[in-house]
Each structure stands twice: as structure tokens, then as C-alpha cells.
Amino acid sequence: MLSNKIKKIIFLGALFLPFWASAQFLGSDSSLYVKIDPKFPKPNQEFSVSIESYVTDLNLAETSWFKNGTLVEKGFGLNSFTFKAGGLGSSVKINIQVKTSNKGTLTKIIEITPAEVDLFWEANSSVPPLYKGKALSSYQSDIKIIAVPNFIDSNGYFLNSKDLIYRWKKDMRAIGDSSGIGRNVLILKDNKIPSNQTISVEVETKDGKMLAGGNLNVVYSRPEIVFYEKNPLLGVVYEKALETPFILTEEEASIVAQPFFFSKDDIFNGNLVYKWLIDNKEIEEAQGDNIMTLRRPEKGSGSINLNLGITNFNRIMQFANNQLKINLGELKGSNLFNNI
């Protein structure tokens, strides 16, 4: 189950890192409207520019398209044209001149400067030591989102991320208290609403000449419990999770419950409550502990059902349950590694 979730997050990660480029209007004729598709071209990406007007018939007008001062196309009814953006930080200036029969010459100048911003996130949630996967975000867990912009000026120098303006939004609503100059880190705290969120950011230079942005979907997962065995010599064997049924071939075994995706702060502060049951009977002496030691009964045969519920009384939406069926197998002979 966990591995499938990790694969899903990695797959979505490619969608979380869009590139945007700035489109600056240097010359503006209010009667000529320009549309760029895509709105923010990536570096070296083709994009189309189309024009509209409500004061003249553009199909009867002669339109000239210039790129960096060079005429690239000219003709009547030529209301759109495709260009290619430059590399990162390289500007493309497009000049559009429309000769009309009733409004003279309409002009629009735009400048496309590709920039990019990558978004990275990490959840303040629990995973075991040396865990190779990502700590997923769960309801009410704190999440840190970091915007890493790549802005290059006309001299080829990267701009300092602390000198840029950041405007954060959550589900299209501005997060004013987290926006501003140099504020490239967003902390999402204690989300009580059980739904995913869309986080977006726009990054802009102080002079407004370069703009970039991106967005990501914050997907919340449910906390989980995974059981591991604690070996008296090797410690907790995190390399292999216990599967049901677990065959008990020793006189006793220590089962460790690892909470996944609970708040790390609450684990550290002792805010998790553990409720163990064996065959639906609560084990009072084990409450509050994430380790259960099982001892083989005198008549060592049959099976038992081990259940555990974990709740975080500081964050009521963080809870999980799991169970493990334990079959009493034939005792192994004593040796250095399994004799307790």
C-alpha cells in the first residue's frame, strides 16, 4: 500500500514543477488585444500570438509581425503567428503593426523573457529511520513548500531569490501574510478540512520586467501503522515489515508499531495514544507504548489476533488502525540470533 502511494507521488511530481515566462507589454494600443498561448512559454518553447480588435475589421487590415526588429511575416488578415521563445533569461521582442482602413496604424509591442520556478515540498510527518520513500502529508500535518526560482538577467547572472517578490495563493485565494519580498517559503499548518489543495506562486522582479510562477496539488494521505519485529540483538528490523499471518516460532516476540505520516512534533511530545487489543480484549499494561511483547502460552498452538489503534489527541484527524494475525508455529531450536 505504501509503495503504491509513493509511486503516485513521484508520478505527480513531474506535474508540480511548471515553468512560466514573463510577457511584458512595452507598447500598448488599447484598441488592439493580444493573446499568448501558452500564456507563459517555457524556455525554447513555441508559442502563438493572436490579435483581436473591436474597433476595426482585422481581416481587412494589413498586419506586420516583427521579431527582435526583423520582419518575419506580413499580410492581410494575418491575425496570429507562431514564435519560439529564447533560452532561460533570453528575451524575445515582438512588434505587431496593423494598418487599418479606419483607425490608422495600431501597434503592440510585447517582450517574452523565459524564467522558471520549481516548487518542492516536505511534510513534517513521521517515517521510520532509513526509510527510502517520502514522508507524505496527512490531515493537519504541517507542510513546507519552497519556491526555487531561476531568473537570469540580460548579463547572464542569476538573480538572488531573496530579492524577488513572491505572491502565494491557496485554492486561488491570496495568502497575503506569507507573500512579499524574499518570502520563498510557505508553511501550511493544521489543515482541518479533509480535502486536497492547490498551491500556486507568482515570482516577480522588483521592476516587474520578469515574472514566473508554478503550482502544485497538495494531496493528503491517511496515517498508517506498520508492524516490525524487534530482534534482541539487531534491534528493530525496519528492512522488512511484518505481514499477516505472522508465524511465531520463538518463546516470545516483540512487535513494534511504527506510525506513518503522523505529526513528528506530536510523536516527540508524547501526544499519540496507543490502544492494543488481543482477541478484542484491551491490554491495559501496554497502553501508551508502541511495543508489544508477545509470549507463547503454555499450550502453544492456534492463533491470536493483535489489533492496534493510534490516535493523536492534539490533531483529531490523525488516527490509524491495523491488525496482525499471529499463528503459533513450531518452536525453533536455540541459536545466537533467535534465542531471547
From TrEMBL:
<protein>
    <submittedName>
        <fullName>Uncharacterized protein</fullName>
    </submittedName>
</protein>
<keyword id="KW-0732">Signal</keyword>
<feature type="signal peptide">
    <location>
        <begin position="1"/>
        <end position="23"/>
    </location>
</feature>
